[in-house]
């Protein structure tokens, strides 16, 4: 049975490790400025945890076979432990875990501690059961007032957000169901939610943030490649959670300006 | 394949031979008991007091979590959806302070009477062995009904709390009026529920007296209940202080 | 009730007092255990329905019919709730803890037998209430076992969010009270009822685990109770603890100023200790069994005790790691992340010590040991995905994906269950006087170990690829389509593995009646339960008070007459 256990444990370890190493299923191709940093930290954690995984499972499998009861020939080493070894591996584990964490902290700080750059594109993202809406502030650069009492998703994008057209700043706000962004420019997001918690998740931008009712959460990211990227809702929000998706179109600055100008012209 | 030795056939030392063999019944913990088969009330008292202390830790956690929610909510600015700005919306509750102070006094006195009941029955329990000596008379041991008075005062407190809630409503503060009023009702109601539980146990203790159980057994119940009662008084002081000074 | 602290020396007569409202901790332990057994099969059935729907969303199943997306979500909610509360918090602690804690410390019963009986029946009522949620109008709630507000606080946020959600909260509140009663009993018993010579540092690691678990429960369940009461008030009496101004389907709701994050803080302040409540007893069982079946003392008993305490203590300081993406301050997130990495250290110590116990030992491969070894493997696998999630920056791609689902299932859904299987195979002879079938035990082990790895290891790959949690199907997002084959593999693995659990149940019930008779100490184990008659008499030790002279894991002591020294063996028998 010892040999069988060794075989099973080592086989499971080998198969799991193989698929991890071969990256058969892996993080999707990233297209934002945070991608290299996040992916590097991921790979580092991955490698270190992978080594521990193989070592621990390997040792487990080996020991249960090596120290199997072989009858009277087997001698047991009576011992209550080894304090020196305890101290050593505790210290090493602490250094490993806390070290890993501290290495990742500057990335977190860069992503989250600092506000958006002055030249970033302001976009307000609003989640509601079960769609995403994107609001651009228009020519005046200001987001206008919204009124919950005016919200009516069946009457179009602006009405879904309850845009209060009596506010001059609101008249030129552009509301779309698809997000357009210029490449290589930071976007200054304001995340809102109307009913329950949703989460704005764009895997290829390595971006995720919950949209919480009652909060206006400010975040930023910078897309680096032109393309179309799917948005998934990443917080259970009701029966339509699985189909609450959207698209981010990252285009050249020119194309973005053209697109926005067309939308703004429609508002006149 | 490892050989597994057959079920034990070796000489296995009998349990309990190492120490001095004490006569049954075994009441766990090996405490010093009377050794004559009668229950060890000293041990039972200690155990129930320990159990109470542990149980009160969990009650404390309930009020710690409510306090934390209260304090954070009080300082939390909320998003005004229309202007997209954060505003403070905490409305201090107009508490009927005089009434609450009267209730506090009632509870304080009830704590005193509960303590008197506890000490009274402790004395009675201590004297019980003397009473059982033939020919010895210590006179009538019907003490002052401190326990009953505690129950009445406790009921008075609950009535006073009910009146305070009515007064709050008259002043326009209902459960859902504002975050502050919600917390005031919730904190005081949670306390009242626990106090009502204490009253039920006090009633049980009073009934136990009537059922002529051994005084030592009654003493254990009254003792632990009195301590619970004191805790309920201190908890009330805390809650009152919280909603008054941090309003 | 006046005799609530009395340990009854007379066994009760009559069917009702003996089996229904028994005050005997052994009967109560079995009642908890069998409640959990029913619950786990309900939970597994729900998970199979879920997995089938994920792959074949339009299938019409026999008996159940078509599973709509909202039904999927209520299956998911009830699966999580029933498994976490009525299996993982019930069997290891209420089941084995109740049965064996008093015996292992040399006590005749729990400190408060009446309270013990009440805590079981309160748990039972909670179970009935939650099952009722399936049968009311609107059905069971769809907000997940985590019940985030405002989804759980608004009665019109989805089907099942009316009476079903209220029943769900009520059931949990009742369960909180039951758990608090049980925790009180466990702690008092451990502190006050230990036999002579049973010092704290001679207690088996199973007792340490049950003791610290009870402390965690004592301090955590009250917070969940508060959270649930606030939720009931928001749902039914118009308060706004959790709900700000919201608009549902164009309708402005009457709430204002509440904070959804408040629910998360309260819930996870409970929720994180809860997962340690779920795993610590299994760790205790693993330690006990690895030592017994390696014929070697546990490596580093003191360190194991300190590690259990450290895990318990730190367990209260890490709840924010569930909230990195929630809108919580990133500075707070950093603090929680450091604490979370710290809690990995005592877990690692325990793993090293388990390996150190086997090393140099003389390993016997009876079924209990197989599951203990499996526990270690699964704990390593599940634990090592923790450091990914503990780093906020890596939590960005991984939060709320299948990666998290794989992580917690490997630990709670498999390792903890292996702890229960191990305990069952190990203690079955003592509880019932018969042995379970070894061959079928082995078959059960092999299929379950391989099967559960096939189910939950691939979820890590799916999570890295970006598959979100709680999606009822993968048809709507293009990037999820290539992940369907792996999801299909998981579904088949789940069906096979769940079916294999019937081997265990059949073995259990068959052995109850037909298993070969067991001796008093078939595993040659050292702890006190193996000194009693089989099954133990009403007061456990047949009128004697055990006196303890040795530590709990004195195996292969040089100079001793045989390769194990019972804790109650005379002091003259060699041990260190």
In short:
With 247 residues, chain B is an all-alpha fold.
Question: Helices and strands in order, then pairings?
Answer:
The complex is a heterotrimer of chains A (268), B (247) and C (576).
Chain A: H1 2-22, H2 35-66, H3 83-112, E1 121-128, E2 131-136, H4 157-160, H5 168-171, E3 174-176, E4 179-182, E5 187-193, E6 198-202, E7 207-211, E8 217-221, E9 227-233, E10 245-251, H6 253-267
Chain B: H1 41-75, E1 78-80, E2 85-87, H2 97-131, H3 146-170, H4 179-210, H5 215-245
Antiparallel strand pairs in B: 1-2
Chain C: H1 15-20, H2 25-55, E1 60-61, E2 65-66, H3 69-88, H4 91-105, H5 113-132, H6 163-192, H7 205-236, E3 247-248, E4 251-252, H8 260-294, H9 301-314, H10 330-358, H11 367-384, H12 386-389, H13 392-398, H14 402-432, H15 438-464, H16 484-514
Antiparallel strand pairs in C: 1-2, 3-4
Helix pairs in contact in C: 2-3, 2-4, 2-5, 2-16, 4-6, 4-7, 5-6, 6-7, 7-8, 7-9, 8-10, 8-11, 8-14, 9-10, 10-11, 11-14, 11-15, 14-15, 15-16
Give an overview in words.
The complex is a heterotrimer of chains A (268), B (247) and C (576). In chain A, 40% of the residues lie in helices and 21% in strands. By secondary structure, chain A is α+β, with helices and mostly antiparallel strands. In chain A, the strands form two sheets. Chain A has a five-stranded mixed sheet with strand order 3-2-1-5-8. In chain A, a hairpin with a 2-residue loop joins strand 1 (121-128) and strand 2 (131-136). The model of chain A has no long low-confidence stretch (mean pLDDT 93). In chain B, strand 1 (78-80) and strand 2 (85-87) form a beta hairpin. With 247 residues, chain B is mostly helical. With 576 residues, chain C is mostly helical. Chains in contact: A-B, A-C, B-C.
């Amino acid at each position: 049975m010892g040999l069988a256990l060794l075989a099973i444990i080592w086989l499971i370890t080998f198969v799991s490790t193989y698929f991890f190493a071969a990256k058969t299923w892996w993080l999707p191709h990233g297209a934002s400025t945070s991608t290299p940093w996040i992916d590097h930290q991921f790979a580092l954690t991955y490698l270190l945890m992978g080594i521990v995984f193989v070592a621990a499972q390997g040792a487990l499998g080996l020991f249960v076979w090596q120290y199997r009861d072989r009858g009277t020939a087997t001698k047991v080493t009576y011992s209550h432990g080894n304090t020196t070894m305890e101290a050593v591996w505790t210290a090493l584990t602490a250094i490993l875990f806390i070290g890993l964490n501290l290495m990742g902290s500057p990335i977190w700080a860069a992503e989250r501690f600092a506000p958006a750059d002055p030249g970033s594109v302001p976009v307000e993202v609003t989640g509601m059961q079960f769609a995403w809406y994107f609001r651009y502030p228009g020519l005046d650069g200001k987001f206008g007032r919204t009124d919950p009492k005016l919200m009516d998703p069946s009457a179009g994008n602006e009405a879904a957000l309850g845009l209060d057209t009596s506010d001059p700043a609101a008249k030129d706000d552009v509301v779309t169901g698809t997000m357009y962004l210029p490449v290589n420019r930071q976007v200054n997001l304001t995340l809102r939610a109307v009913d329950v918690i949703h989460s704005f998740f764009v895997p290829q931008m390595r971006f995720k943030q919950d949209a919480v009712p009652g909060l206006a959460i400010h975040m930023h990211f910078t897309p680096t490649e032109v393309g179309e990227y799917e948005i998934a809702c990443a917080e259970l929000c009701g029966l339509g959670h699985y189909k609450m998706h959207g698209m981010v179109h990252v285009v050249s600055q020119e194309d973005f300006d053209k697109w926005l100008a067309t939308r703004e012209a429609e508002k006149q | 394949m490892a050989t597994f030795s057959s079920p034990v056939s070796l000489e296995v030392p009998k349990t309990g031979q190492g120490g001095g063999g004490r006569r049954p019944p075994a009441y766990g913990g090996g405490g010093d008991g009377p050794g004559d088969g009668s229950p060890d009330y000293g041990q039972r008292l200690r155990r129930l007091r320990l159990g109470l202390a542990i149980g009160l830790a969990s009650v404390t956690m309930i009020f710690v979590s409510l306090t934390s929610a209260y304090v954070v909510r009080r300082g939390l600015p909320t998003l005004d959806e229309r202007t997209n700005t954060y505003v403070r919306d905490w409305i201090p509750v107009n508490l009927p302070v005089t009434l609450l102070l009267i209730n506090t006094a009632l509870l304080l006195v009830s704590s005193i009477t509960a303590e008197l009941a506890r000490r009274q029955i402790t004395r009675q329990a201590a004297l019980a062995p003397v009473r059982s000596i033939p020919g010895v008379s210590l006179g009538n041991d019907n003490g002052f009904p401190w326990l009953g008075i505690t129950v009445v005062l406790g009921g008075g407190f609950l009535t006073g709390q009910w009146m305070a809630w009515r007064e709050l409503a008259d002043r326009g503060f209902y459960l859902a009026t504002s975050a502050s009023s919600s917390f005031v009702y919730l904190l005081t109601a949670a306390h009242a529920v626990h106090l009502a539980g204490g009253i039920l146990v006090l009633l049980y203790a009073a009934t136990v007296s009537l059922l002529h159980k051994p005084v030592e057994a009654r003493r254990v119940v009254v003792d632990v209940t009195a301590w619970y009662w004191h805790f309920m008084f201190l908890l009330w002081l805390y809650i009152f202080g919280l909603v008054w000074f941090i309003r | 009730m006046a005799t609530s602290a009395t340990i009854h020396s007379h066994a009760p007569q009559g069917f009702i007092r003996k089996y229904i409202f028994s005050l005997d901790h052994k009967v109560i332990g079995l009642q908890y255990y069998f409640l959990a057994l029913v619950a786990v099969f309900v939970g597994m059935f729900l998970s199979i329905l879920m997995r089938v729907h994920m792959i074949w969303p339009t299938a019409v199943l026999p008996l159940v019919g078509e599973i709509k997306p909202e039904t999927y979500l209520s299956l998911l909610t009830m699966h999580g709730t029933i498994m976490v509360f009525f299996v993982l918090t019930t069997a290891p602690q209420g089941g084995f803890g109740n049965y064996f804690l008093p015996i292992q410390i040399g006590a005749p019963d729990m400190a408060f037998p009446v309270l013990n009986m009440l805590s079981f029946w309160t748990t039972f009522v909670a179970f009935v209430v939650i099952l009722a949620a399936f049968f009311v109008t609107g059905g069971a709630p769809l907000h997940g076992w985590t019940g985030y507000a405002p989804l759980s606080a608004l009665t019109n946020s989805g089907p099942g969010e009316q009476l079903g959600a209220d029943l769900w909260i009520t059931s949990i509140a009742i369960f909180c009270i039951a758990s608090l009663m049980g925790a009180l009993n466990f702690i008092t018993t451990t502190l006050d009822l230990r036999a002579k010579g049973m010092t704290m540092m001679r207690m088996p690691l199973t007792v340490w685990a049950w003791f610290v678990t009870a402390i965690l429960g004592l301090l955590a369940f009250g917070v969940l109770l508060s959270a649930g009461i606030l939720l009931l008030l928001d749902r039914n009496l118009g308060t706004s603890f959790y709900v700000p101004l919201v608009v549902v389907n164009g309708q402005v709701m009457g709430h204002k100023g509440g904070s959804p994050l408040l629910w998360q803080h309260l819930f996870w302040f409970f929720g994180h200790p809860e997962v340690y409540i779920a795993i610590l007893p299994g760790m205790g069982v693993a330690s006990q069994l690895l030592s017994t079946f390696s014929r070697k003392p546990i490596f580093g008993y003191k360190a194991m005790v300190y590690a259990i305490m450290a895990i318990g203590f730190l367990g209260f300081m890490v709840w924010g790691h569930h909230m990195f993406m929630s809108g919580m301050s990133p500075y707070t997130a950093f603090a929680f992340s450091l604490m979370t990495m710290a809690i990995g250290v005592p877990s690692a110590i325990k793993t090293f010590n388990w390996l150190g116990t086997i090393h140099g030992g003389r390993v016997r491969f009876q079924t209990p040991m197989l599951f203990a070894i499996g526990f270690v493997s699964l704990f390593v696998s599940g634990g090592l995905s923790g450091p990914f999630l503990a780093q906020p920056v890596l939590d960005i791609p991984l939060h709320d994906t299948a990666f998290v689902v794989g992580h917690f299932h490997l630990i709670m859904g498999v390792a903890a269950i292996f702890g229960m299987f191990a305990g069952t195979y190990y203690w079955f002879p003592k509880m019932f006087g018969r042995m379970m079938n070894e061959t079928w035990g082995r078959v059960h082990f092999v299929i379950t170990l391989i099967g559960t790895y096939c189910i939950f290891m691939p979820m890590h790959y799916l999570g890295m690829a970006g598959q979100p949690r709680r999606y009822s199907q993968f048809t709507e997002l293009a990037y999820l389509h290539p992940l369907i084959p792996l999801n299909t593999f998981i579904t088949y693995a789940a069906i096979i593995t769940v079916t294999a659990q019937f081997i265990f149940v059949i073995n259990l019930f068959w052995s109850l009646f037909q298993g070969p008779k067991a001796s008093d100490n078939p595993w040659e184990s050292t702890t006190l339960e193996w000194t009693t008659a089989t099954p133990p008499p009403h007061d456990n030790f047949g009128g004697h008070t055990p006196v303890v002279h040795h530590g709990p894991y004195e195996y292969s002591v040089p100079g001793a007459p045989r390769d194990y020294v019972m804790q109650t063996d005379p002091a003259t028998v060699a041990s260190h």
